[in-house]
Design a protein that fits this description.
The chain has 1 helix and 9 strands. It is mainly β.
Length: 154
Amino acid sequence: MVDEGSKQGSTWPMPKFKFEVDLSPELRNIAFQEVSGMDVETQVIAYRASNNKLFSTEKMPGIAKYGNVTMKRGIFANDNTFWNWHAEMKMNTIKRRTILIKLLDEGGNITMQWSLSNAWPTKITSTDLKSDGNEVAIDTIEIAHEQLTITNGK
């Protein structure tokens, strides 16, 4: 019999369409259309030891560099959440937050969670306006952060 993926420990990959975001303890379970840019890159340090018999360098891991995370969501009447957070920036200071991005299973349980530490908004792009369009109005926020950690389940 073929395994359709309904049993515990299935080898089927997770679908990515059911997720939610917590921007802060007060702003939980926010629905976004899209979240992208959750990546980390480790710089390479080329080093040649003086006693190395090979005429080449060793490659060692250096500083980790985290990319900005981009989030898109529909605009709702009287909801200025992104703009209010961005307006908190004053003279090189802002209240940094821990943002949680949760991938959910069909039952709404957390299967995987990305945590962005010391996050703050670096860019907000409001929707474009077209008199002949019929698309939903979308705001985009770009989040800078200092660390990305991943946990499985809850």
